[in-house]
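Checked the freezer inventory, then went back to the computational side. Two predictions to log before the end of the day. The first one is the construct we discussed on Monday; recording sequence and tokens without edits.
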Amino acid sequence: MTRQRQDQLVALLLRDRGWTTAAALADLLGVTPRSVRSYIAQINARTADGDAVESGPSGYRAHRPVLAGLRADHTQETPRDRLHRLVRVLLEAEDGLDIFATAERLFVSEATVEADLARVRGLLDGTELHLARSGPRVRLLGDELAQRRLVSRLAHEEMEEGTFDVEALRRAAGLGTVDSAAFGAFTRELTAELASLGWYVNEFAAADVALHSAIAADRVLRGHALQSTHGDPSPDQRRLTATIDSLSRRHFEVSLGPGDLQHLSSLVLTRVVAPGGATREQVRLDPQIEATVREAVTHAAHGYLVDIVEEEFIRRLSLHVQNLVLRSREHATVRNPLTRSLKSAYPMIFQVAVSIASHVAQRLDVEIHDDEIAYIAMHVGGRLERSRMAESVLTATIVCPGYYELHELLRSRIAGALGPSIEVVGVETQADPDWAALDTDLVLTTIEPPQRDERTVTLPPFLTQADLERITLAASRLRRGRRLARLREELKRYLSADAFIRPLDTNDEEQAIRRLAAPLAARGIIDQGYIDRTVEREQLSSTAFTEALAVPHALQMTASRTAIALGIAEGSVPWGDARVQVVALVAFSEEEREAFQTIFEQLVEVFSERASVQRILRRGHDFESFLDELVAVIDG
């Protein structure tokens, strides 16, 4: 466990580019600050100069080149490495493995092997594989296709923290017969070949196909070819088998049989995003799926007041869902390295995706996990990007007395450098303009104004890059100030002392939700159905949107009015696969849907800044002091 904690700590330090206190790291890991200091000493001891993690008055900071190199150093086996090695031994041992001999082979005790076997059973969930025990001998039972899914699961466990490390994938899956350099070439050529056949595949999907092709190549070379798959190949599969066969021969130096080629062509088809040059008639979109997606999109658009009901968007998303359904029914998992960042950076978009996924899952009876929801969020985000940009445009007035062309040069430079985010709607060339009448968001002036405020930026006539950056910074401050001002007003309306719990002492999400829901239910704001639906929403996808905050809520806005119950943990509590310090259970009403986006996104924004979180938690001992500190942080 100690080495595993060290690896988790390394990941946290690499993700944060600033200084972090031992207390903050301890909360994120669920340990004491003393343990963090011990882990850091052990991490530094693993480097020649002991400088992987820097320490100072502000806490700890990664020496990034050294720490990243340490993370890539796999000369020391971690518990997860050992677990994966045990799985690979089981996959290769047709007659099973002997626990005593395996313990000797892995240089561990028999008790350690027994403990690892218990963890292996957890890995086997959903793979149609199981362990058979006879005395000290253990066998892995299940067909070849199920065994390959297990190998894929080992590789996918490496795709954490937004990384896609080919060598780590290869090592985890035990692809000793496959050259890691072949992955990139296979992926690039596969994408090009699919484009020539009229298909488009995104980079993550193409890399996933390359991984499965490498697994197939490795298994065939070890004597475990797929003899056949279910059903006859479709015309599309037959079009793809020649391509996959050629790429496998060229890059993995293996000749795949009909069973493997049909299986891989099926995997490719479940990962195709949209036909590139195909006509509508060639797409063969399932009418039931299209109708379900249309219903889900319309429901989400109405519920969250977002503009996503558009024919081309619905069609593209339906194509994606059609492949998602195929993947689910074939137990073909996909990973999205952007899941964590999408959830924390775009919580509202992710929430809309959860709503769509929930509707689709219920109507089509499929299971949709977080990585698949993240792909739906990417579709939603692409659709909303234009409207979100339009909403963030700020107006500006240029004040520039002097030579008659000067203001035009200034206007042209600003427009060319800052693009559509700032719209210049007025130009004042008088030396004594009516400053009080300037009502735009920003005032960009080459002369000193009588009074300065946050919207005024004084500039030289000829702009430098530093001047453009000052304009951008002023615009960012203004946008953030407006967003957080709205949040401040909403919080004063929806928070109350009777729904503030500190400490929130629990180690279970459902227990925390029900405890926070109790004061809201007592006031008649929510009923038992709302509480149960909040628990169900949590099971769909974790609402831990930052490293500090979880925002549990129901998908249906059925509260009698909008209200928030806040729970503060002393240290942190486990939430999904993370740990959080603050839990904000939000009850939304249908009549106040407009508040959803303000509260949801801006609350996540506030609690994504570690320094702000620590200040609020350190000083907010009771409801009044907590609210004071929260408002103070919002006001900057």
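The second is the one RB wanted added to the comparison set:
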Amino acid sequence: MQAIMYLIKKTYLNKIKRSFKSIPSAILTVLGVAGFIFIFIASFRMKKSPLESASSETIVAAIVLFLGVLLYNSFLSRDTGILTMADANFLFTGPFEKRQVLMYLLISVAPASLMIGFFMCFYLPMLMGPALSFGKYLITLVVISLFLGIIFLSYYYIYIIDAENTGFKKKAKKIFWAFLGALAVAFAAVLLNNDFELKITVKRYFESSWYNWVPLFGWTKWAVSSLLTGKILTGFIPSVCLLLAVNAVLCIMLYNVKVDFYEKTLEDSVSLQKIMDDIKTSGKADSHAFSKLKNKPVSVKFKTGAGAIYSKQMLESGKLGIMSSNREILLQLFYVAFGLIFGFKFNFVIAMVGFGALSMSLNDSWHRDFKKPYVFLIPESSFKKLIYSVLPGLIKTMISGGIALAIAAVAYKLSPAAGINYILVFFSFAILFVFAEIFTYRLIGSNSNAVVVTMLRMLFVIVACIPAIVILVVIAIISNGMPNIIETSLCMLAVNVLISILLAYLSKGIFEQSELMD
């Protein structure tokens, strides 16, 4: 047991040490932590919540449901393992019994749940205002950690059982989606009963007494909302007892499992380690490395030369599951729905859609192609290979963001010209963002600290935006402050495309050195 605790302690200490392994990393880490602390303290000093149109109960319920579904779908749709390669080698080659390995998993759930729980709860004080004091925040963090603990423990149990009984994870996923389907049917019934008034439906759905008894999601919402309203005996204690009881049952089930999971866990730890190395060194990982490729026929027209890179990516995208292949558009639509339900202005929605789309574009497959030696052997120019490798992900980002913004423009009753303007602006900066990211990758390489890479990436994007901003100022001056919005957007798009082509040309050396990469 001492060795197990030592391993867990060293794991987290080494993560902290890596953040200070160089002077730039140390400076950026200190600045990042200081910024988090400042925002965190300032959020408790806000006099009112920006979401006064929605109750704290509805906010908590929506966040818990969304993140819970996201985590479960992520775990049940991927083969990324449950141990890193270093941990697996240490545990499986050392003098440890199976139950000691399982104990390591059980103990590691607590710090992981607390860390993820903190990031889940980080913005709650801003959203709820004075309804959430610091003391209640700490209790809420514990409740959310219990919620996350159930997710982790249940996934570990499903993963281990699936190691011997192949197909168990698939059955668990079907049960999970059937459960969500039942919740969706109940929501549709409430929506129909309220004459399709979305805001009223959401409020009545999440705040109804029956939802409190919905396993896991309802219990968590019930605990937090009861804490905020002071219903300790009739709400907080029963719901927390339910969460604690399920955590205890899952711990007992996992500790007493009889399945031999060593071989599968060790095999999957290699894939997990590669993903973690990518994230650690460059702040991103290939999205296909997280997702299963299904064995199903896909119709793709194969191209020759540099176009083969494009064809390969399209083939792999076609073999992804429905959730994996459409996760971008689903997330963008969630932002639109979130803005509508909670009464945010359109500017907030477009900012969230843009941020979500561009963030996910950093995990596209072109990151992986830049590291593969076979691209060096394709008899085409480096510039052409770079364009073809980026094209599938860029098109996907533009389509998903464009659809979400079009739906948002209709929902917010914007004029057609204004809607087209926002979509064109999004397209122009989506293109610029991706090629600025490639240029960062070309200059820094793939072995730099992730925090440093992220900061420099943001700097390059800001610098790359300057020409378009200058053009906007010139147009505003020439038109006496009343420019045509469509013409302005088209001008911005043209400027950003030209800047992107220049960045792509300057970045073509990525493929000229690919035979030296891992």
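For RB: The chain is about 75% helix and 0% strand. Residues 2-280 form one domain. Let me know if you want it refolded.
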